[in-house]
């Protein structure tokens, strides 16, 4: 099979700023003045930047496992199910690489490689599980030479019976193997091993260049460099600081898909690629040279995890994403280095979906630079209150961002102060071009005027046996059903063991009723919420084991110490754990449906053994039929770029960008596209995905996930059309409700005393 390079050059989406002279990467010595043939006037114009072109290789690359460039210029692309492709024209065309020893092993039984690496001699080294017993995990190192049979390294003497997980081959043919115990070895073909070092903890992304090893610890402390000759770590304060500032806690998905990727180039420089862009560094040097600005490229798109990246001749780069997309970066000295138009977009916290959308937008609009500002950057000391004050000051002074993501911001206050542009007429005109769910958009109107539009939505849902779920029509009947369920089925109803946790689970369906239309507290709604959620809490605590309660109480401070925020306030807390329900450790689920994949899980629940009577439905509370708007976007009323901002918003509501975000879009056509199954994974009448876990006794729990198609989605689409009440979090009010409610739950106050305490706590906030 021959794959032709079908690339769309996205001119202008990448920016070269490293040397300040519009040069391609590596053309100037680090820490010295760059030499250029440009005149001063040309340099001042800021000419020259990288452009990118994308090739879709997903038809041959189902699960990317690596990209390797050998000294003779051959490129090798490794696919985890056991295939290798080669290119002799720098990635323009790809052909299957004939490796009979690999084909023989793959033909015998299915195999999935954890890591794969090509050697200079054209042989493949890999770690994978080739055992016939599906219930066992037995990864082994394997070597597939160009001629002869495969060699299975099943006699390696690794530390304490550890199993291999990563393999890398140096340019001179030395093979290095890492195990799950954080040990690194040099391996000989006679299966003898020499331990090189033991890292402080598990790590991923093992790389090698000359005498240097690089790896990324799972604790997120930044890339480590080890000198094999000197047998010691290389101290590099500049690299350490850069990684901590730009990629704190960056993660990987296994050992072949990474949020941040690093590699050595053909100039012996060390390159780091991630959402901040591509940076060049000489190990031990004094600077990190920016080659590509991540904010202007696909590098910032969180959907593009890295499976490999190499430096080609003539200052080109090739990046392989885990989705099978191959991105070519080429320097063009004839175009301006910075787009002339600029739009600034602001969100309180960094949003992956927004980064993805911005990246997609800029690929379509290379003449526009989208400057993404985050009020509370990761690992910063800026508090939410400080961030909002700073934003208020900027906007009120007539400055500030052009486009605002209102999630977490005081939207009502912004509307009352006239800080948001009235988009009513704009939306009426837009509705003639884009088929939106009007109920999801109109729900956010204030006094019949549209100031913000949600880009995507979520839904609070519950699941239980049909006899009980079908009775959950409001919060009282839900509490009734929980009590009945607890009496009928022994064990936990939910896996939540604190007053705040129980209240938090059911807040989305009730919080919109906590305030009256005039902004005052709704006494009846809040007291009903406390009374009914306390009934659920009492049932849960009566059925819970002491061990589970203790484990839960241990998690709360551990999570806060690790992430600096409350677990019960996190998005993880709303996660729907179908495996717990299938395994019988809980008998009810209450959480958030936020993606098509989650909906596939919910649709599949009743298809799993023992769950045939499960029913999933919209959560009912005191507020009616509730949905959760997400990425609520508005325009600064004092923006100097109103027309450009409206064009920006129009594009953001288009199908391509909405689909790239990964959630439930507000566009009907984008929603339909979001549920189109991946043809590589979908087989009619069969599960599309599997998940597995084990219970405390060690019994395997398996979840089969079917993808809903056609009529399978009718109940979901009815729910989407029926919801009318938006839940927009009011963190201050809700926390006060939880605090006063906790005292009532624990018997420290009566219902009336809890109400008085709430009013006392919230009076100043409500007055503001």
Can you tell me about this structure?
Mean pLDDT is 88; it is low at 1-22 and 27-45. The strands form eight sheets. Strands 26, 27, 28, 29, 30, 31, 32, 33 and 36 form a nine-stranded mixed sheet that branches. A five-stranded antiparallel sheet has the order 1-2-25-24-23. Strands 3-4-5-6 form a four-stranded antiparallel sheet, with no helix packed on it. The protein has 768 residues and is an alpha+beta fold. It is globular and about 80 Å long. The chain is built from 21 helices and 36 strands. Helix 17 (655-661) packs across helix 18 and helix 20 (731-745) packs antiparallel against helix 21. Among the domains are: 98-198, Beta Barrel (Thrombin, subunit H); 343-453 and 631-659, 3-Layer(aba) Sandwich (D-Maltodextrin-Binding Protein, domain 2), CATH 3.40.190; 456-629 and 671-730, no CATH class.
Cα(first) to Cα(last) distance is 67 Å
Based on CA atoms alone, the radius of gyration comes out at 28 Å
Largest sheet: 9 strands, mixed
The residue-averaged pLDDT reads 88
Report low-confidence residues grouped into runs of 5 or more: 1-22, 27-45
Please identify the structural class as seen in this structure.
alpha+beta
Q: Percent of residues in helical segments?
A: 25-40%
Name the shape in a single word: globular
Total DSSP helices:
21
- What percentage of the residues does DSSP assign to strands (E)? 25-35%
**Extended strand count:** 36
Give the helices and strands, then pairings.
Layout (H helix, E strand, L loop, with lengths): L7 E3 L29 H5 L2 E10 L7 E6 L5 E5 L3 E5 L7 E2 L3 H9 L3 E7 L5 E6 L9 E6 L6 E3 L10 E6 L5 E5 L3 E5 L5 E6 L4 E7 L2 E6 L6 E4 L4 E2 L3 H10 L14 E4 L5 E5 L2 E5 L7 E5 L12 E7 L3 E6 L3 E12 L4 E7 L4 H13 L3 E7 L9 H13 L6 E3 L5 H6 L7 H7 L7 H5 L10 E13 H4 L5 H14 L10 H8 L16 H21 L2 H18 L14 H6 L4 E6 L2 H9 L9 E5 L7 E10 L6 H11 L2 H7 L2 E2 L2 H7 L14 E6 L5 E6 L8 H9 L2 E2 L4 H15 L5 H17 L1
Parallel strand pairs: 26-27, 26-28, 32-36
Antiparallel strand pairs: 1-2, 2-25, 3-4, 4-5, 5-6, 7-8, 8-9, 9-10, 11-12, 12-13, 13-14, 15-16, 16-17, 17-18, 19-20, 20-21, 21-22, 23-24, 24-25, 28-32, 29-30, 29-31, 29-32, 29-33, 34-35
